[in-house]
From TrEMBL, chain A:
<dbReference type="Pfam" id="PF09490">
    <property type="entry name" value="CbtA"/>
</dbReference>
<feature type="transmembrane region" description="Helical">
    <location>
        <begin position="73"/>
        <end position="96"/>
    </location>
</feature>
<feature type="transmembrane region" description="Helical">
    <location>
        <begin position="147"/>
        <end position="170"/>
    </location>
</feature>
<keyword id="KW-0812">Transmembrane</keyword>
<feature type="transmembrane region" description="Helical">
    <location>
        <begin position="108"/>
        <end position="127"/>
    </location>
</feature>
<feature type="transmembrane region" description="Helical">
    <location>
        <begin position="244"/>
        <end position="265"/>
    </location>
</feature>
<keyword id="KW-0472">Membrane</keyword>
<protein>
    <submittedName>
        <fullName>Cobalt transporter</fullName>
    </submittedName>
</protein>
<dbReference type="InterPro" id="IPR012666">
    <property type="entry name" value="CbtA_put"/>
</dbReference>
<keyword id="KW-1133">Transmembrane helix</keyword>
<feature type="transmembrane region" description="Helical">
    <location>
        <begin position="177"/>
        <end position="201"/>
    </location>
</feature>
Length: 291, 72
């Protein structure tokens, strides 16, 4: 029984990843290329400055995969596999909740769960640590950045689960509306505290000692010894577009998973119930708690 | 051994086997999904399971940035 839901979920996960890839390929890749070009130009300018100062200039890193491969097959593979991974976690949550609350209609539960996963795994962490294009992010802080990002994802997922459980109990006491509002408020408070305690990317000791105190790792203008700007800071529009499209791509993926899986789960659930019910008309007339 | 037992056996199986099969499915899918999440998003950046290699990292490079993961 579980296998039917799992395989369907993995199917819609791959589809969601594929649709998000198509969106990314059309809308985001031009900006990713802009970011990479910026990085290359900045490195060249930095090398000029180093050479003028009499420093040895480091050689360029060897490319393992061409840009053509990265921007087509590479990102497609990444998005589809990410869709599979997310759909796997999604369907585990679906199977756990649907057994505990069989009264919730499958497509309603699927849509709500997909929205929760979008919030917990991506949107809430994004508020503190938004997606960054190439050229934004210092190589030496990758360990720190990975740690705080995963901490943010973990906190937001756990806090969301706790908020839903709390909301369920609060609803009995304060009614559905106020119980839900109280749980949502609790979630916002917990997340706000976590965000206040976690460091901003620019505030890592490694960054402060080397680049000065900035909120983020976004490249600042490159200055020559006289303080004149020889290369601009990272273009704000590229940063904005990249982040906006990152957000939209996740919405596309989660909407696909939630809605498509919901439709499939309705059919699987109906088929599973059909032989058990006494007669067909009775099954059709049975009122569903939500529609 | 005797022929009278099968009725009880069948009942036992119909209760115990679906539970463990369900746990196996849920646990298996959970672990594999987390592993996939790790390899797409994290491996060969901060930590690396295959030593100093960056083929996975470089191949899914654009996706890693675009999906919100920290990347070099």
């Amino acid at each position: 029984m579980e296998s039917r839901f799992v395989f369907r979920a993995l199917g819609v996960g791959a589809l969601g990843g594929l649709l998000a890839f198509v969106f990314a390929r059309i809308f985001a890749e031009p900006f990713i290329q802009n970011a990479i070009d910026y990085e290359a130009g900045r490195d060249a300018a930095q090398n000029e400055l180093d050479r003028a100062a009499g420093l040895t200039v480091g050689g360029e890193e060897a490319e393992i995969f061409s840009r053509g491969l990265q921007r087509n097959l590479g990102i497609a593979t990444g998005m589809v596999l990410f869709g599979l991974a997310m759909a796997g976690l999604f369907v585990v949550a679906y199977l756990v909740v649907s057994r505990r609350f069989p009264g919730i209609r499958p497509r309603v539960l699927a849509a709500l769960l997909a929205a929760a996963c979008f919030l917990g795994f991506y949107a809430v962490p994004f508020v503190k640590y938004p997606a960054n294009p190439p050229a934004v992010g210092h190589g030496e802080t990758i360990g720190d950045r990975s740690a705080v990002y995963l901490a943010m994802v973990g906190i937001s997922v756990v806090a969301l689960i706790l908020a839903v459980v709390a909301g369920y109990h609060l609803a009995r006491r304060f009614g559905t509306w106020y119980g839900s509002l109280l749980a949502a408020l609790g979630f916002v408070v917990v997340i706000s505290v976590a965000m206040a305690l976690l460091p901003a990317l620019g505030h890592f000791p490694l960054n402060e000692s080397q680049y000065g105190r900035h909120a983020a790792e976004t490249p600042q203008p490159l200055l020559d010894p006289d303080g004149k700007i020889v290369y601009p800071g990272f273009p704000a529009d590229v940063l904005f577009k990249f982040r906006l499209y990152s957000l939209i791509a996740q919405m596309i993926m989660w909407a696909t998973i939630g809605l498509a899986f919901g439709a499939l789960a309705e059919r699987v659930t109906a088929r599973a119930k059909a032989p058990a019910s006494a007669s067909r008309p009775a099954a059709v007339v049975t009122p569903s708690p939500a529609s | 051994m005797s022929t009278s037992a099968p009725v009880v056996d069948a009942q036992d199986q119909s209760i115990s086997s679906p539970v463990s099969a369900r746990a196996l499915w849920l646990g298996g899918v959970l672990v594999l999904s987390l592993l996939l999440y790790y390899f797409i998003g994290i491996d060969q950046g901060a930590t690396s399971l295959f030593g100093q290699d960056s083929h996975i990292h470089e191949f899914v490079h654009d996706a890693r940035h675009f999906l919100g993961f920290p990347c070099h």
